[in-house]
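Researcher: We're teaching a course module on how sequence relates to structure. For the next exercise, students receive a sequence and then see the predicted structure as C-alpha cells, so they can try to spot secondary structure elements on their own. Here is the exercise chain.
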Amino acid sequence: MIDRDLPLKKEIANNIKALMKLNDIKNQIKLSEISGISKSTLSDYLRLKTLINPGNVEKLASAFNVEKSDIDPSFASSSRGKQTETIAAHIDEDLTEEEMEEVRKYIEFIKSQRE
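Model: And here is the predicted structure for the students to work with:
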C-alpha cells in the first residue's frame, strides 16, 4: 500500500528536526514539555508514522515561535504556493541534480535566518 502522505510527512519531520536544532532543543522529551504534545506522538511524526494534525501544528508553531507553514507547508497561502511552483518549474529546467541540491540547501539556509 502506497502512503500518499509520505512526502508531506518527510517534509514536516525535517522541518521539526531543523527547528529543534535551531532552537537547541536536544530531544523529544524537551520538545514535549515545551509544546504540550506527548513524546510518543512527536516520535510518530518524526518517524513518519502519522501525519501531524492541525492542532499540533499550532502547538509546535507556538513553541518554536514560527508560522504554521514553517512546520506544515500545507498551511502556506495558495498564492505563495503558486509562486513557489512557478519558481520551481523554471529552476528545474536548467539545473543539474547537484545544482538543485545547492538550491535546496540555500532555501533551508534562508528559512533558518527568519526571526
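Model: If you want an answer key for the exercise: The mean pLDDT is 84. Residues 6-22 form the longest helix (17 residues).
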